[in-house]
Every structure is written in C-alpha cells, then in structure tokens.
Amino acid sequence: MPRQLDPAVVRLVDLPVISDPRGDLTFIEGDRHTPFHIRRVYYLYNVPVDAERGGHAHKDLEQVIFALSGSFRVKVDDGSTTATYWLRNPRQGLYVNRLIWREMDCFSQGAVCMVLASKPYDEQDYYRDYSTFQNAVREKL
Questions:
Q1: How does DSSP assign 10-78, residue by residue?
Q2: Residue 10 — very low, low, confident or very high, per pLDDT cuts 50/70/90?
Q3: CATH number for 103
Q4: Which domain holds residue 97?
Q5: pLDDT tens sequence across 34-51
Q6: Considering the domain boundaries, does residue 91 fall inside one?
Q7: Residue 100 and residue 56: Cα distance in Å, rounded?
Q8: Using 50, 70 and 90 to split pLDDT, how confident is the model at 1?
C-alpha cells in the first residue's frame, strides 16, 4: 500500500455552511477553521486552462487553498511521497504546511483560487528549486 502524506502536513479542511432558500453562506475564522492566524489572503483568477501555478515550497508559511469557483488540481509532495487533490467545492480547502512542494494545474474556465496564508509575502520564505527543497527536507530529518 502506498505511503500517505501525514495529515499534519496536508489535509482537506471542511468549512461550515449555512443554507437557506436564498443560497449558501460559508465563513472562515482564523485559528478556528485554519490551524494558524490568517495574515494574508490572495486569489488567482483568469488563469488560462493550460497554465501551471505554484511550483514551490515554503520554509515557514502555512496555507489553505480553496477553489471558490470552478476547479483545479493540486499536486503536493513532502520530498518522498506525493498526493493529488482536486479542489472544486468552495467550502472545502486544502491545508498545506511548511516544507511541502505544491503545483496547481488543470484550471477550469473561470476558476477562482483563494489562498489563506499564515504570513505576509516574503520572497526569502520560498524554495523555488525542487532539488534545494529536497535538500532542505533531508536536513530536517
């Protein structure tokens, strides 16, 4: 049986939904629905269907990734095990801890990706080279 990624580093997060005849309402509270205080929110839209996003890991930052509209694929890698998630439900996000390589592709037409992040943007927090990321993972072990 293939090894699975540890849920402490990658897992689906379900958000509450309040439904009534007027539609659905979902809300997010940092430190309650995310395992971190939300310091930054950003979103991707108008992404060409053949584009790839991500292609990096973070040294310290944690994220929860949502498909608010449409769908896309997220591939995650802890340096030895990979997993694939399809995000298409706006009330279910993918928690991605630090030191996890992530790639996003297969965006549907009109997809909107929202990301909740534990830290403000800092270019020094990124591993953009896969072999450098793998070295960092090995050093951590």
A1: EEEEEPPEEEETTEEEE---TTTTSSS---EEEEE-S--TT--EEEEEESS--EEEEEEES-EEEEEE-
A2: very high
A3: 2.60.120.10
A4: 10-140
A5: 999 999 999 999 999 999
A6: yes
A7: 8
A8: very low
Cα angle: 38, vertex 40, 43; to 5 degrees: 120
Establish if 122 belongs to a structural domain. Answer: yes
**Within a domain: residue 30?**
yes
Pairwise CA distance, residues 50 & 4, whole Å: 28
Tokens of 33: 């629905």
Q: Are 104 and 113 in contact (CB under 8 A)?
A: yes
70 found inside a domain? yes
| Mean pLDDT (whole number) for 15-30 | 94
The H-or-E segment that residue 133 falls in is helix 130-140
Q: pTM for the complete prediction?
A: 0.92
Distance CA 94, CA 115 (A): 9
Q: How many domains does the chain have?
A: 1
Q: How far is 118 from 79, CA to CA, in rounded Å?
A: 22
Q: Residue 7 and residue 96: Cα distance in Å, rounded?
A: 9
